[in-house]
Amino acid sequence: MDTLNNETSELLYKQLANIIRNDIFEGRFKQDERIPSEFDLSHIYKISRSTVRKAISLLSEEGLLVKIHGKGTFVASPKFKNSSSTFLSFTENVDAMGKSLITNTISRYYETATPDQKRFFQLDGAEELLKIIRLRSIEALPICVETTWFTKDYDSLLTKNLNGSLYSVLRKDYEIEPSAGSKTIELCYASAQEAELLDVPRGSALMLVEDYVYDSYNKPLHITKQVVRGDKFKYALK
């Protein structure tokens, strides 16, 4: 059983949400299946019920869980299907705005996968992931620092021209199509690197968008973190 780590900076409710999310992705919790109660999860992971409640609330907002009064919390059905209320991608949003998007690749290198990343990519041991950092600008104004992680199955991306659509490269070179996953949006604060790239003061409030994406074969494709200037850009719904 996965355990929570009290010595990491990651909040406990987010750690629990990651565990439950991974259990859903890997089929340990099926569609329409009731997950353990707040009391049981609190007992299993030795945390407060309020912490459990925050984790369930987060996954409910992602559309992975649904709470039914008097019955409990269930895995949502259908699972991982895009709906009319899913968010448009960054590129689609910019296209909808009628603006020009410029992408510059900042760096790409391998780094050791975190426990959460290992769970998503179903890795064992001290595996490394390819990390790609790109700066995305609209009409020459820096808007988004985008960080994407892939397994070594996609190591040719180390040498590809990624100053355009990353999905176009995946379709052309790997015949891979992104299909489903989850998206979370929350507030974050600019690190030193993000502040420099986005030309904002360090510690500025920014929008953090995280995607866990599967391909059309339901295999883990990538994790992407976008740090976005919310004062200059807004996500739209389909």
Automatic annotation (TrEMBL):
Protein name: Transcriptional regulator, GntR family
Annotated PROSITE patterns: HTH_GNTR
BP-aspect Gene Ontology terms: negative regulation of DNA-templated transcription
Signal peptide: none
TM ranges: none
SMART domains reported for this sequence: HTH_GNTR (SM00345), UTRA (SM00866)
Keywords annotated in UniProt: DNA-binding, Transcription, Transcription regulation
Source species, domain of life: Bacteria
Entries under PANTHER family matching the protein: MANNOSYL-D-GLYCERATE TRANSPORT/METABOLISM SYSTEM REPRESSOR MNGR-RELATED (PTHR44846), MANNOSYL-D-GLYCERATE TRANSPORT_METABOLISM SYSTEM REPRESSOR MNGR-RELATED (PTHR44846:SF1)
Residue ranges of domain HTH gntR-type in the record: 10-78
GO MF, one example: DNA binding
CDD domains: WHTH_GntR
